[in-house]
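Exercise 7.
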Amino acid sequence: MSAPQLAIGFDADDTLWHNENLFAAMHARFGALLARYHDAATVERELLATELRNIEPYGYGVKSFTLSAIETAIHLSGGKIPADEIQHLIDLGRDMLIHPVELLEGVASTLAALASAGTCRLLVITKGDLRDQQSKLDRSGLGGHFHHVEIVAEKNPGVFAALLRRHAIAPENFLMVGNSLKSDILPVLALGGAAVHVPYHLLWTHEHTDEVPAADGRFYELKTFHELPAVIREWQNR
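Solution. The predicted structure, written as tokens, is:
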């Protein structure tokens, strides 16, 4: 009997390409725009509160963020923010959506090598806006390396469990690679899978967690994507 094929899932934003840096720049511009109404700390606090409140109706991504920024600007200005400044926020959001996709160092060569080896099924598993995420994947030039692309509304054990069942992947044969402990690592470890944490230098507040992964040899933490092939070989040998 042949051994079951292993599968590796990859988060997209801030794992394969830069993303949070665009949001950080947008936050700075938003704070400057509203500086005449409130101090920077108040603006940032109110924007985050609006973003979190709007996850349920709007989901994740640039479009959700832009709507939250407009809502926050109207609220903090007492409805006085002029239409041209609201238009400016819309334009900034549009610029984010069409910004060139910039791959993280080592991603292109590593994925090409893994796809060429053919020993594992490769999947993209990312949350966010369907059109935006698919557009970024298309523009990244990486799409041809993956067997499946899953764009989900949320990442939790239930979502991962359903996804693995749909693709007939046993949790013990699955390795997830991502930059968020909360979204990419802990849910997969909870199912009995393995996970590789590759931190990004920026992390949205909503993705922070104080929980420490404990998985008896199923959890790896790297500094760069270049270290990933060695970890995958170790995982395969297990």
